[in-house]
Amino acid sequence: MEALVTVRRLAAVCTMGANASALEKEIGPEQFPVNEHYFGLVNFGNTCYCNSVLQALYFCRPFREKVLAYKVQPRKKESLLTCLSDLFNSIATQKKKVGVIPPKKFISRLRKENELFDNYMQQDAHEFLNYLLNTIADLLQEEKKQEKQNGKLQNGSIESEEGDKPDLTWVHEIFQGTLTNETRCLNCEAVSSKDEDFLDLSVDVEQNTSITHCLRGFSNTETLCSEYKYYCEQCRSKQEAQKRMRVKKLPMILALHLKRFKYMDQLHRYTKLSYRVVFPLELRLFNTSGDATNPDRMYDLVAVVVHCGSGPNRGHYITIVKSHGFWLLFDDDIVEVGKEQQNN
Hints:
344 residues; alpha+beta; five-stranded mixed β-sheet; 8 helices; protease; Putative ubiquitin specific protease 12; cysteine-type deubiquitinase activity; hydrolase
């Protein structure tokens, strides 16, 4: 889950390079989870946007398990996914429980593959998350396509089936949901709907609000009138209509993006909306369609990516994650025990 919120820093800071054992002591040997590792990531020049998202994804258990499983498959040529699986495997197989790892190979590959990230400027964590998930999905689909083609060649067939849809990958199985855009003609009452898949939901924020309120705003009914009238197929003319967005298929893991960076016409630039947004530790989506699958699914908060700073081109990203019942704050190479109250 991704959210941009203001967070209070703890007074005690554990410098992982010098005092890695301090985190172990604070958690306690009896409470420290078996086979778990808490490692900070080295910042290679404004790569906090990347480190924060990687930490959130590492503690997303279904995603971590799939990436680690990819590591043991027959070796493939280097890609963003092979570099990610190497990084996750390096963390998961450390002899020490805490420490620092430099994600050098991953950052190098990222900069080679996308010029947007090939610099030392601050980048947007949400853009990086989208790029990473879509790139991994594309890689997996291409591998599946190659496997099918190789199988057809072995069977003496080289014809490809036209109109073949790309296979859904484990990225889609974990993060993909479906929205349905419903439009109702106010003249004949006919309802048309169009489905759209998503890997994350971007919602607007307002002053003194909550995640629930943001989601309600996302699905508010909008009236189409005047020059924005809707062309109704039944009436065969433009008519006033009501439009609303609903969630038709709930994803296994719900990633929410709070749209804190807003373009201000009077300033001719983007500015940050530093509003307080309260979000619960458990969330049930109420803005579902009538034919939604598993509409009562309950989501538990597992990670928050936080932007600290006054604007989109400055500041710093950190991550708060929930692991085995307690909260941890990851700030590049620093890892410290957090508090539940920090998430408000």
